[in-house]
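re: ur question from yesterday

yeah so i grabbed the chain u mentioned. its 196 aa long if i counted rite. heres the sequnce exactly as i have it in my notes:
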Amino acid sequence: MPSAKTVSLDSHAMATLRYIRESMDAAGSVAVPGSAGIAMGAVGLAATALSLIPNLASHWFAIWLVAAPIAVLAGALLMTRSASVVSFVGTGKPGRKLLLGLTPSLFAGAVMTAVLWKANYLGAAPGIWLLLYGCALISAGVFTKIIVRWMGGCFVALGLLALVSPPELQVPLLGLGFGAMHIIFGVLIARGVHGH
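ran it thru and got these structure tokens back, copy pasting raw so excuse formatting
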């Protein structure tokens, strides 16, 4: 039968290992602020509202091309206010990993947008945007909280749905993803829900 001293040492060793593991996880990941998602979602909802105005409906593509960099800028500004993000990017390697997770799918989205525009086949753009953004979130989610991967999975599913949906549902699906879904997950992240 182990002595009280042995049990105490085992408990102390386990607590130390748990602390080291949590510290290493924190050093390799970033806490994305929920406010960034909420701000990006607000821009997405505004773009949706503008795109659904009858006189502007034919300009939905241009509206979303303008909204995208505005949303990215708003999200980036709010992320840079987070101390964990500043230290995360400042250390170099984790920041590069996060960018490497995001960049390939976002680059593919930009290339596919140009291809669709040149081919005059913009009806597939919403599905491709949602799908590739979801892929980017899943990849970047490796270096953030698991809830970001869950959000990416939802975007992928929504993108697949958009690719098989009729034209009149494309803008509402963009709004559901880049608007409502950003806000919902932003609120969940702000409340400290990290997923499992």
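noticed a couple things. Residues 26 and 135 are 23 Å apart (CA to CA). also The first helix runs from residue 4 to 27.
anyway ttyl
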